[in-house]
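re: ur question from the group chat, yeah i did fold both. here u go
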Amino acid sequence: MEQLVDFWNRLTSIEIVDIIIAIGIIVFFRIFSATFSYMIIRIFKIKSKKAKEIKESAFFKPLKVFFIILGIYLAIVFLKAPLKINDQVMDIVTKTFKIISVIEFAVGLANSFTAKTILGKKLRKSLSQKMDDTVFEFVLKITRVFIYVIAIFLVLAILEINLTGLIAGLGLGGVIITLAAQDTAKNLFGGLVIFIDKPFVVGDWIEMDKYEGTIEDITFRTTRIRTFENALVNIPNAIIADASVTNWSKMEKRRYKTNLCVELDTPLEKLELLKTRIEKMLQERESVFDDSIIVRFDQITDNGINILIYTYTNSVDYASYLKEVEDINMKIMKILNEEHIELAYDTKTVYVKN
């Protein structure tokens, strides 16, 4: 209570002019924070001429916050003598200002390393021939984590925390941390395997175990898959690294295969004509690989004569593949109708003894 009374007495004893000047410093930096940020970014980005591009810079907002905090800090420094603020309190204020400055700089620097920023786009352009988008995103994430780790160490140094003692303390609890982080370590290693082997990238359609869908994101710990039911599944990287993954997006061609079973009494001449017409129809399709076409009378069954039709099409995605299959089947049925060839049915003859 006495301390509050003492502070109030000191506050009322200082001249109004000092208070006005301190408030003026805060207001000045608040009003011109955007202008100062713009000027600094403009100095370091000589090639940038557009104001919109400068304001969208990753450092613009952190710099605004910095100048606002700077104004508050300078106002407190100005009032130190009139308010008779002791060195202990000023030390806390100074450390707080330094910590906020480090954090804002780290945020601005980390935000510069994203795919949407100017720096990120330049890096992507320069590395376009060396790595794909997924690996590039992973490198950016690692860079951001590294920046924040350095910022944490700088904050600890400002707080004058003994890093040697802290590391030693972590060593004492290393066994507990290791046991607790086993799964995390496995997932991190699994993520590293995914990025090195590159069995899939963001946007690929994959199938594994009971999951099938499109890859939306690959993080340090998990991989996100958007299923065809539109559900989002987060799968630990350790599971994916040990699983058999089918990447349907890597298909260069897709197989078409069907069996036509025609009636047993179909004349051989008609069979030959049917084969010829089907083979010609497939050869005329631009989506079909000619060297993969097989149309053969391969076996005689109890119900009829089987003709194997086998080929590959360049319609890879599922929707276009189904359309391609439908078109081929429709043309085959048309040929059967034109040649008056009937398909055989599964029939059984039952004899009834009186």
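okk and heres the other one u asked abt
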Amino acid sequence: MAKNIVAKTIKSIFFITIGAIITAFALASFLSPNNMIDGGVIGVSMILSKVANWNLGLLIVILNLPFIMIAWKKMGSRFVALTLYGNLILAIALNFFHNIVATKDLLLATVFGGIILGVGVGTILKSEASLDGTEMLSLIVSKKFGFSVGEFILFINVFIYAAAGLVFGWESAMYSVLTYFIGSKVIDSVMEGFNSSKSVRIISDNASTIGDALIDRLDISITYLQGIGGYTGQDKDLIYCVLSRLELPKLLDIVQEIDSKAFVSVVDVHEVYGGRFRKK
């Protein structure tokens, strides 16, 4: 158990380091030179850094400290330690990338800055840490006042991007919002996994025949579930399986071939763990 905890911590530290460096590159080389900002505490820090000419990395650490302390009781010491480490690495990396400008083209900075930022932040979040105090505060506020986490973050960011519009101009603020949107989508992809699959439920009077065909012809594992028809009250066999997007059309062909009246439900699955089992 102790070895597993140590190995998990080392893995988290490694990916947090990589994520913080990637995030710093996006902020310092894409967003900041083009007067664009991220949301949350990082966005506030970027505005203050431009207005007062203060060190951006130091500002992010200082402004995040109160939220990190608040998170101590709610999220645990491990989360706090990893988050503080991530903030320190981000601050150091920001100073390293400070004079490196990747592009001055606003569209390129928006698109690639958002993508790179999303990869960096998503890597850190998946490693059970955070770079932004707004997310930590949202967890507490949402439970106390009934807001969702997303609603609270959106509410805060409206004011932050409005402030960015006043400081940098509304065009830069709109590009910043677009960057945030792109980054959030990339974060979702990193968190949920790129290996998207499909889960399928099939209801048919010929479930056994369909199941055998799927095993033999697609070489996938299936599970039979028991159900009761809502109208008829009769027992029904359901087939459940998970397969790749490339295998889905073939599955539908097999089902159509055996029972054209079968009910098929297909749902996206972002991550799948475990192996396949072959028919004996």
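fwiw on the second one: The chain is about 65% helix and 10% strand. The mean pLDDT is 85. idk if thats what u expected
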